[in-house]
């Protein structure tokens, strides 16, 4: 995927975007925001905890994207501050969400990082580890499919698209791992001979050294 530059924003935490979108419905206090996001299943896509959420709301207020709408007092209970979205916040949320939907961003998944460094482990051990991963992915996919089937019975699909996407990503990763495992086990993977040689001799194969030298020459 080729990264495409987007406008740098004052706030980069996706939770800030979720808060602004939620506040377009009505003013809420931070605890209510957290509970609403969780009740709608957004905690499967966003990392939500009250402490970080309160900081996000404070930062949104600092930049003029939300404002205090009301301070509620009920008997001896602590007062609760309700926040509402501002016109600037509506504009920011719309532009930010539009960017995220339309422009592919370069992300750095942990699994991708592990794949880039896996040569330090023997290929047979990598095959064993990926087999374990595949089993977990298959269980996750089966569970997600079952959950979605039930949810389709009670919720419009518009509220389930992120869950569909998550399932698709799990299934796509599982399919890739299956194919890679076939190449590992059959020995068809280009470079596996040198990979094995590295672990058997403890020395970097000449073929890999030549590749690295050519790469640096180009730079």
Between the first and last Cα atoms, what is the distance in angstroms?
22 Å
Q: SSE string, helix = H, strand = E?
A: HHHEEHHHHHH
**How would you sum up the global shape?**
elongated
Q: Give unreliable regions as ranges.
A: 1-5
In percent, how much strand structure appears in the residues? 5-15%
Kindly name the structural category.
mainly alpha
Quick one: biggest sheet?
Answer: 2 strands, antiparallel
Total number of strands = 2
Residues in helices, as a percent range: 55-70%
Radius of gyration, Cα only, in angstroms? 24 Å
How are the strands of the largest sheet arranged? 1-2
Number of DSSP helical runs = 9
- What is the typical, i.e. mean, pLDDT? 91
Organism: Streptomyces umbrinus
InterPro entries: Metal_resp_DNA-bind_regulator (IPR052509), Tscrpt_reg_PadR_N (IPR005149), WH-like_DNA-bd_sf (IPR036388), WH_DNA-bd_sf (IPR036390)
GO molecular function: DNA binding
Protein name: DNA-binding PadR family transcriptional regulator
Structural notes for this entry:
By secondary structure, this protein is mainly α. The chain is about 60% helix and about 5% strand. A two-stranded antiparallel ribbon has the order 1-2. It is elongated, with a radius of gyration of 24 Å. It starts with 13 loop residues before the first helix and ends with a helix. Keywords: DNA-binding. It comes from Streptomyces umbrinus. It holds the Pfam family PadR.
């Amino acid at each position: 995927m080729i990264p495409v530059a987007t406008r740098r924003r004052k706030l980069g935490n996706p939770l800030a975007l979720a808060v602004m979108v939620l506040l377009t419905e009505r003013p809420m206090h931070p605890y209510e925001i957290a509970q609403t996001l969780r009740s709608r299943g957004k905690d499967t896509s966003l990392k939500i905890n009250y402490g970080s959420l309160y900081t996000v709301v404070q930062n949104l207020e600092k930049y003029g994207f939300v404002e205090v709408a009301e301070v509620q007092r009920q008997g001896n209970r602590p007062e609760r501050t309700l926040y509402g979205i501002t016109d600037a916040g509506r504009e920011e949320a719309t532009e930010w969400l539009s960017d995220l939907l339309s422009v592919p961003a370069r992300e750095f998944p942990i699994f991708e990082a592990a794949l880039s460094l896996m040569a330090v482990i023997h290929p047979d051990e990598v095959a064993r580890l990926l087999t374990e991963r595949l089993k977990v992915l298959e269980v996750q996919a089966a569970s997600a499919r079952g959950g979605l089937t039930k949810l389709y019975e009670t919720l419009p699909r518009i509220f389930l698209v992120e869950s569909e996407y998550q399932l698709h990503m799990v299934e796509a990763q599982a399919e890739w791992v299956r194919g890679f495992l076939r190449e590992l086990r059959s020995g068809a993977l280009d470079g596996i001979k040198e990979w094995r040689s590295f672990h058997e001799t403890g020395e970097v194969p000449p073929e890999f050294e030549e590749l690295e030298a050519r790469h640096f020459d180009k730079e």
